């Protein structure tokens, strides 16, 4: 009877502990203003991409030369471009391209980066090869490297994904490797080796789950960097080919008439800024939640702590 009572008490204690952990996670999630703002912005952009055809009555290729460079009004909420196409429609469909390229590149680089980083951290011989290649690629400025790859591959959306995946994979691999090196030195990894566990089992079942936190954070930043780089490539004519809409080539069309049609540069530029800010805030929020050792202290709080300790400025 005593054993059954002790078991019930243990079960109840576990349930309470799990519920407390869940409530703590919810409080940390909803109290994190950076993450909430970033999540709201990203949700808005996703809805914009998915519900694009239902929002506008035009197509991104529909031209009306008589209404070229028409300012924002009730018919064209964001105005028209230099071919008479509805700018809002092109921005919405351009969001599909820019956000889609960013998501695919972030996914590919995360997969390749975790593979390279884990195996480089576990095998020293492989570490020297992979990391030296990564160092060589990182030494080249990203935008210049992407332009060179696009010049070799040709201006296509698929080639933009390939080029940017090659550019950003070394960054993810180095982040994963640095986190995996710390995990590799833990006692339980040595215990698994002593028990005869295979290298594959140790890498993917015991090391990989412990590097997901920095990987997810890095993926959000790669997502934002990809949007900026893709826009830069398209602006230079080496990215998504026209007439397919992308925020970058919309800006390229707008630079020719920037003094006569300000809306052609302001609105797509605002979308790029909004998406990058949202993704960076989301990444900061995820880092705060998943990494309990990382805490932000505002300048005001830091100054108050300094005064409480009786410290003075030099």
Can you characterise this structure?
It is flat, with a radius of gyration of 25 Å. The chain starts with a helix and ends in a 6-residue tail after the last helix. The chain is mainly alpha-helical and 314 residues long. α5 crosses α7, α7 packs antiparallel against α10 (212-235) and α11 packs antiparallel against α12 (263-290). It has 13 helices and no strands. It has a single domain, classed as MetI-like (MetI-like fold, Orthogonal Bundle). Residues 294-303 have low confidence and may be disordered.
Q: In a nutshell, what does this entry contain?
A:
The chain is mostly helical and 314 residues long.
Share of helical residues: over 70%
For CATH, the homologous superfamily is named as MetI-like
Structural class: mainly alpha
| Count of DSSP-assigned helices | 13
At CATH level 2, the architecture is Orthogonal Bundle
CATH fold field value: MetI-like fold
Oligomer: single chain
Beta content: under 5%
In N-to-C order, the SSE pattern is: HHHHHHHHHHHHH
General form: flat
The CATH class: Mainly Alpha
Largest sheet, strands/sense/barrel = none
